[in-house]
Amino acid sequence: MSKLIPNAAKFFAGSTITKTAAPVVTTSTSKYSTKSEATFEIKPYKLHKLEKGPATSATLTSEDALKIYEKLAVLRRIETASGNLYKEKIIRGFCHLYSGQEAVAVGMRAAMRDVDTVITAYRCHGWTHLMGVSVLGVLSELTGRRTGCSRGKGGSMHLYGRNFYGGNGIVGAQAPLGAGVALAHKYRGDGGVTFTLYGDGAANQGQLFEAYNMAKLWDLPCVFVCENNGYGMGTSVDRSSASTDYYSRGDYVPGIWVDGMDVIATREATRYAIDYCTSGKGPLVMEMETYRYSGHSMSDPGTSYRTRDEVQEVRQTRDPITSFKEKIISRELVTPDQLKEIDTKVRKEVDEATKQAKTEPEVGTEELSGDVYYNNLEPYIRGLHPDAPLQHCEVVARN
Amino acid sequence: MALKSTPVVFGLMTRLSRRSFSTSKALASKPMTVRDALNQALDEEMARDERVFLLGEEVAQYDGAYKVSRGLWKKYGDKRVIDTPITEAGFAGIAVGAAFAGLRPICEFMTFNFSMQAIDHVINSAAKTFYMSAGTVPVPIVFRGPNGAASGVAAQHSQCFGAWYSHCPGLKVLMPYSSEDAKGLLKAAIRDPDPVVVLEDEIMYGVQFPMSDEALSNDFVIPIGKAKIERPGQHITLVCAGKATDTALQAANELAGNGIECEVINLRSLRPLDFETIAQSVAKTHHLVTVEQGWPQSGIGAEICARVMESPAFFELDAPAWRVTGADVPMPYARGLEALALPRPADVAAAARAVLGNRISQAAQQ
Ligand SMILES: Cc1ncc(C[n+]2csc(CCOP(=O)(O)OP(=O)(O)O)c2C)c(N)n1
Ligand SMILES: [Mg+2]
């Protein structure tokens, strides 16, 4: 963005040189954005059984732009930290990174209301944070420590938060679960909508189609969000799916295809989806086309079933963060310096959380047999042999 | 109750390292990983019988999520090594249907945790059809994949299905421990006319064992339903299968240092269960401990103990039999907690000492 004058005041401090090439009118507060809002065109949606789709242009305020950028940056940074912790062997087992897919969650979250609910699969670090769990709460769970949001008992795939029902490790299982959460919204009449996220691989599981059917039959306020990142493990979409138009695979459930690399598009589509579902029309399918940069999980180098060039090309041309950054800078909603400030802040926050997530202790051994039941009815939990009984304990206070 | 046999202190214990513990004849030669042994079994059986084919998630182009089917897609092509979508209920059903029609499918579950998506086809379609059809529709299928706890993968990915599947009539259920077991049992499973569930273990895939010359041959098949005495001993019988065999053998090593000689029985097959070998051993040692990774209630150990209760073997016991099992909780993720949820050699040794020391009443009072 060399066309802009970043932080002119600082840049030219003590100097009388002015850069005339700059097309932008700089004010005395040029460190900050110059425009309060801008309107963006959105790559056309594809519609299935819908007359009218989401708005094809959207207005963004500079305040929103900064917030969204910060969220995108935090999510990316959390995954960088996770990847490093895994390489240091501090995170164990499976560790699935969300890098490349941030615009899906961040845009959706920006449109969601407090009453709405989410359930997703194991690629859940970012969503957990967006749903209100601190960076430390996420990272400490990955390192299996006391300050983890599941106290180290769930690990990377099983994170939970308010209005956030996981982190599910069984591919496709979250689809009917999400429809069930939506049933509860309808039952209570609280006006909430559930977002049930699943991958292109999961999109073939039978239980998804069972859930579509009942959700439609009963008009459940459920948005089935297919995050199509091109691959389910090492299998590309055309090798797994007889139709790769995931937005149309709900058949009688209307659907929208959305550019999942554009956070403005995902936000706009989500607004539309909330409108649709709260008007009592029943469920909706949203396909978010996106990409995952890392391997399926940390143990997969992710290079045997796709080329390095393919990954590079997406990074260079469609990266959800870089592209958003370019948009908001070129439209003068923000200045590069403002974004740099955010980057610095985010790096500091995540670095500090990472450090703490490494040094916190694990929970005490008594929690091995904690919370097996809400209401435990037996005096002991059996341990490894008859002479090693465990005591059930209530880690979380019952209400 | 007095001990019928007194522990003898051995001055010299040859301690073989765990990874090279010989499981077969002394002339055992080439070491081979469990993974390669399974691969060899698949390869040999596919070469031997045109009807045999492999299907499952990532089995072909990716060489298997755990590389068990490495090279087979290149060798046998799309027709016989088939990548499926992530649709366990569907592809397991398709595999069973193909078996109805006379093919011999090997249905790989990426891990057995995901077989729960398809358990209806394993039980209702595969196990019961021969019976329901009065013997007219055989179902020669193999369901295989890693079972039980891997490390650090938490509750939904760490579960033993030994008890689940061996509960069901019509199924045969195998649980290999070593490379020879893996090869011989998988080959037997593929050749068997009934549905067979082969419960492997991810952690054991990379472990090397010696392979006897016999085991390297194309015709090496281990009979289904026969246990193997991994280590003879006269003081106490440890019955185990799969990875728990490793735990029991390590415990036996430790106990031998204290003069306690364990007879370690590797079941190899959970159904049919070789109770005769167990009973004979108990008649010799008069003490029994079972070792498994799964949960205690209605588990493999529970079944073994029940059979002892129902048989004359009961009278041979000098002390109640004990089960060493996984703790009765879902698997936690954190390293420290996870270690406490699965039996370690020290837990087996403690149980063996308790049973031999007759500390049962003490335990009961706790
Ligand atoms: C029922 C089930 N089958 C298989 C697996 C193993 N597995 C975990 S993730 C995955 C790929 C899923 O791909 P996709 O739905 O596209 O999601 P992505 O990983 O791309 O986010 C597979 C096969 C599982 N966890 N659960
Ligand atoms: Mg995918």
Automatic annotation (TrEMBL), chain A:
Q: Which GO terms describe its biological process?
A: pyruvate decarboxylation to acetyl-CoA
Name of a matching Pfam family = E1_dh
Name the chemical reaction catalysed here.
N(6)-[(R)-lipoyl]-L-lysyl-[protein] + pyruvate + H(+) = N(6)-[(R)-S(8)-acetyldihydrolipoyl]-L-lysyl-[protein] + CO2
Cofactors demanded by this protein: thiamine diphosphate
**Keyword Membrane annotated:** no
Looking at the record, the residues that make up the Dehydrogenase E1 component domain are: 71-363
EC number per UniProt: 1.2.4.1
UniProt entry keywords in alphabetical sequence? Oxidoreductase, Pyruvate, Thiamine pyrophosphate, Transit peptide
Keyword Metal-binding in annotation: no
- Which PANTHER family does this one have? PYRUVATE DEHYDROGENASE E1 COMPONENT SUBUNIT ALPHA (PTHR11516:SF60), PYRUVATE DEHYDROGENASE E1 COMPONENT, ALPHA SUBUNIT BACTERIAL AND ORGANELLAR (PTHR11516)
Write out the function statement from the record.
The pyruvate dehydrogenase complex catalyzes the overall conversion of pyruvate to acetyl-CoA and CO(2).
Q: Kindly provide the name given to this protein in its UniProt entry.
A: Pyruvate dehydrogenase E1 component subunit alpha
Automatic annotation (TrEMBL), chain B:
Q: Which organism is it from?
A: Parnassius mnemosyne (clouded apollo)
**What does this chain do?**
The pyruvate dehydrogenase complex catalyzes the overall conversion of pyruvate to acetyl-CoA and CO2.
Show the SMART domains listed in the entry.
Answer: Transket_pyr
Sorted UniProt keywords: Metal-binding, Mitochondrion, Oxidoreductase, Potassium, Pyruvate, Thiamine pyrophosphate, Transit peptide
Protein name in UniProt? Pyruvate dehydrogenase E1 component subunit beta
Which cofactors does it use?
thiamine diphosphate
User: Example GO molecular function term?
Assistant: pyruvate dehydrogenase (acetyl-transferring) activity
Spell out the Pfam families in the cross-references: Transket_pyr (PF02779), Transketolase_C (PF02780)
One GO process term, biological-process aspect: pyruvate decarboxylation to acetyl-CoA
Chief subcellular location: mitochondrion
